[in-house]
């Protein structure tokens, strides 16, 4: 009787959460459908005007010289203990110094951190990793092998294999999202967190639910959920859309004086042009939906968020929306959030800010308090195991959570009687 009453009282909450999830999926795939129609119209128009130029792309035969520049660091490989995959990375600096681990975004590889590898190698053991499916790292075929917990194991294994117990974790775009999640799950392995243009996972959810226009601005992420078609579209006109992500008017580097040279662009296009080279990076977006609908606890490590204010993909103000998800002691002792007038790829214009940021990082390291190390057999939680967060949610969510607490209290009292 008491169990039946409990299930009955919890039914409105479960039903509301199910409707919320359904609405989210409808928004995502509805946006994907709209984006697909616009993309197909564009392809038909450009194909009609120049069929030969539109439907052609070149597979690069050998890596460009910029990827082999010894001044950028030493190339090496490590084997992931959890996955057995081989990961490529570039390292520079004394391995006895604190580890600074860089995680790239889409559609990049280790090369996007070339300036940071050189600048910070004087004080840290700098390592730029090719994430699984990207660059010269192994690329599994199955989508299930790009789940969030699997990617977090990759980061943990990398830190362990490099001979460190913790690191200063730096991430941009998708690498930034992974950095947030890793700091939430393994604060004992993160001395300090630096994220570029990637909101706290819960801040992203709040922005989508409160401003559905965010999904329209992120139409490419919804479009990437589809199979095969995104790989074809990104390859057209010899990867013209990929090029626009780096040097386009809306998404790329705004300052023309800092635009990538053709050789630097080839540093990214070389691996992406190989057969299946786009599938691995796109699988990060395709695994997005299994992780987005869950909120997380506060970030408990010192952190710095660097944000390009002219970002056309993420809604304005999302950077400030991350503040409620920082522990009060962390928020009070972390450097101020930094806004950049440039676009999303702010790393390429990051050299001028290196000295000031480097000083902030040294300050963070000196004052960091590292929690006791978790046993090495720590298991990352699956998305369904993460506990929803109560603070900084929509009013309807607070009411549902309050009703759930009331129902549980009532059930406990009925059980005692």
TrEMBL record:
Matches recorded under InterPro entries: AB_hydrolase_1 (IPR000073), AB_hydrolase_fold (IPR029058), Epox_hydrolase-like (IPR000639)
Gene3D superfamilies in UniProt: alpha/beta hydrolase
Residues covered by the AB hydrolase-1 domain: 98-209
Membrane-spanning residues: 15-41
Keywords: Hydrolase, Membrane, Transmembrane, Transmembrane helix
Keyword Isomerase annotated: no
Family: Belongs to the AB hydrolase superfamily. Epoxide hydrolase family.
Protein name: AB hydrolase-1 domain-containing protein
Gene source species: Cirrhinus molitorella (mud carp)
């Amino acid at each position: 009787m008491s169990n039946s009453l409990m299930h009955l009282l919890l039914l409105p909450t479960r039903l509301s959460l199910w409707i919320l999830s359904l609405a989210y999926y409808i928004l995502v795939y509805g946006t994907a459908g709209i984006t697909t129609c616009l993309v197909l119209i564009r392809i038909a128009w450009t194909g009609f005007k120049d069929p030969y130029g539109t439907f052609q792309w070149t597979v690069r035969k050998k890596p460009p010289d910029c990827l082999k520049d010894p001044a950028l660091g030493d190339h090496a490989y490590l084997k992931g203990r959890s996955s057995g995959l081989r990961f490529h990375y570039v390292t520079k600096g004394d391995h006895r110094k604190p580890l600074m681990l860089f995680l790239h975004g889409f559609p990049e590889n280790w090369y996007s951190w070339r300036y940071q590898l050189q600048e910070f190698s004087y004080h840290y053991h700098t390592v730029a990793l090719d994430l699984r499916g990207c660059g010269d790292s192994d690329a599994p075929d199955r989508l299930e092998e790009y789940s969030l917990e699997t990617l977090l194991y990759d980061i943990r294994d990398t830190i362990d294999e490099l001979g460190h117990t913790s690191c200063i974790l730096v991430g941009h775009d998708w690498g930034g999202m992974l950095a947030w999640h890793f700091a939430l799950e393994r604060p004992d392995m993160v001395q300090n967190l630096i994220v570029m243009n990637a909101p706290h996972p819960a801040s992203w959810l709040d922005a989508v639910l409160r401003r559905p226009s965010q999904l329209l601005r992120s139409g490419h992420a919804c479009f990437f959920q589809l199979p095969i078609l995104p790989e074809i579209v990104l390859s057209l006109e010899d990867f013209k859309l990929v090029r626009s992500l780096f040097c386009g008017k809306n998404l790329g580097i705004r300052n023309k004086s800092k635009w990538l040279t053709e050789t630097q662009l080839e540093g990214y296009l070389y691996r992406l042009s190989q057969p299946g080279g786009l599938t691995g990076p796109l699988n990060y977006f395709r695994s997005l939906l299994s992780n987005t609908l869950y909120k997380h606890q506060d970030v408990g490590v010192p952190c710095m968020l660097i944000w390009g204010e002219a970002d056309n993909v993420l809604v304005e103000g999302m950077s400030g929306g991350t503040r409620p998800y920082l522990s009060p002691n962390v928020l009070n002792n972390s450097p101020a959030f930094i806004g950049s007038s440039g676009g999303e790829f702010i790393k390429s214009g990051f050299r001028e800010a290196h000295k000031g940021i480097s000083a902030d990082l040294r300050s963070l390291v000196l004052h960091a308090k590292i929690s006791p190390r978790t046993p090495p057999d720590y298991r990352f939680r699956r998305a369904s195991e993460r506990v929803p967060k109560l603070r900084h949610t929509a009013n309807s969510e607070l009411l549902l959570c309050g009703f759930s607490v009331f129902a549980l209290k009532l059930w406990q009292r009925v059980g005692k009687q």
